[in-house]
Amino acid sequence: MRVLALGGPGDMGRMAVAVLLESSKITSITVADINIELAEAFVDLVGSEKLTPFRIDINDKEKLINLMKSHDLVINTVGPFYKYEKLVIEAVIEAKIPCVDICDDWKPSLEAIEMTKQAESVGISIIIGLGASPGITNLLAVLAASKLDEVDTVITAWGESINIKEGKKPKHYIAGKQLKKKLGSGRKQANAAIIHWLYETLEKIPTYLNGETVEIESLTETEPFDFPGYKSMYACHIGHPEPVTLPRTIKALTISNVMYVGETLTGLLRNYRAKILKNQMSIEAAAFALEEDIKRITKRAMMGQAPLKEYLGGPPMLSTIAFGKKNGKKMKVSVALARNPYGEMAGVTGVPLAIGALMIVEGKIKKNGVLCPEEAVDPWDFFSKLAPYCGKSKAEDILIIREDEIKFINNILM
């Protein structure tokens, strides 16, 4: 099986490539990126005969399609997705090649879903948003909702988690520091994930409320996120795709996506958003500054220094809560990923991407079309495959699942 890894030398791509290299069914991986020096350095550091670097500008659609046609499967981590997702999905449909990506922007997710009939007509599976959030959170939501007879509300959530246990480092994984060292000094680039994070605060975002999609301001404060057994966390809405994709498969009145990173970091995020909107700061400059703030906050939190103890004792990085009824009782079902793959954000994003790709290779994905994780992937099968990368052997060993009876007062959760 020949794999084309678009954005392969990036943070998320390197982890996905490392996992795919472990499979005997993967015969070759083309590590494609517009930055050929980065791709060449990564391939050289890994030292696997399966890897080949390749320069591609995905804006050159004809060249991109021809490159895809010489492969059997595409994995895509090229961002920003609001700029490139539609282009890549159109290309894989024209090339008639299955694809898995980690798109975490809601608008391009909907644009991709609109192309599902074209994907069905050429007989390919395209799984979008199979990373952390969306991805793992979607599958946690499916598990939570499956425990209820009637679902009222679903909250997918992600946040800062200190000292969470991780699995072992994959053999072929190359960290960003190793890559930078090999490339030597050069112009430092802003962190792509942080740029995306800032970008999704600049416009109104969708949430699913009382059976309808409505728009709200990003970073709108919501009720504290209260996961049983952990400290209640300050939370606010953030613009990931779950509220616009999950209603397609989970019949609930309300579905929202929130983040819990504490009031301190949320306040900094709001401050940088304001400066960007007032043209006082570019999004790249804000990303540099925010990255330094995150390093400082994390270091102080690890030392237990006030007031940043707010980051300690909260729930795991990825979790979901569903409210509804079971056997006539009003219930709260809470599901979280108790352990993570190695590599922090690269791990919880890149490993799921690779697992999805391997499920296509193994014939586990039966449906064609443009599919969200909850439409394509069996949760228990997925978490069983994820468990070894989290340092455990079974899905049950990496999941927290709680069912608690609750009370409703005037239809407001109390």
What does this structure look like?
With 414 residues, this protein is of the alpha/beta class. It folds into two domains: 2-133 and 342-391, Rossmann fold (3-Layer(aba) Sandwich); 136-340 and 396-405, 2-Layer Sandwich (Dihydrodipicolinate Reductase, domain 2). The chain has 15 helices and 17 strands. The protein has helices spanning 11-20, 36-46, 61-69, 81-95, 106-113, 116-121, 136-146, 176-183, 192-199, 242-245, 262-277, 283-302, 344-361, 373-376, 379-386; strands at residues 2-6, 28-33, 51-55, 73-76, 99-101, 125-127, 150-159, 204-209, 212-217, 236-237, 254-260, 318-326, 329-337, 369-371, 399-405, 408-409, 412-413. Strands 3-2-1-4-5-6-14 form a seven-stranded parallel β-sheet, sandwiched between helices. Strands 10-11-7-12-13-15 form a six-stranded mixed β-sheet. Helix 3 crosses helix 4. The longest helix has 20 residues, at 283-302. It is globular, with a radius of gyration of 21 Å. The protein starts with a strand and ends with a strand.
Number of domains: 2
Low-confidence parts lasting 5 or more residues at pLDDT below 50?
Answer: 409-414
Which CATH C-level class of the largest domain is it?
Alpha Beta
- Specify the biggest β-sheet: 7 strands, parallel
* Helix proportion range: 25-40%
Distance separating the two termini: 52 Å
Mean pLDDT metric: 93
Number of helical segments? 15
Over all CA atoms, what is the radius of gyration? 21 Å
Strand sequence of the main sheet, in spatial order? Answer: 3-2-1-4-5-6-14
Which word captures the global form? globular
Q: What portion of the residues fall into strands of 2 or more residues?
A: 15-25%
- CATH architectural label of the largest domain: 2-Layer Sandwich
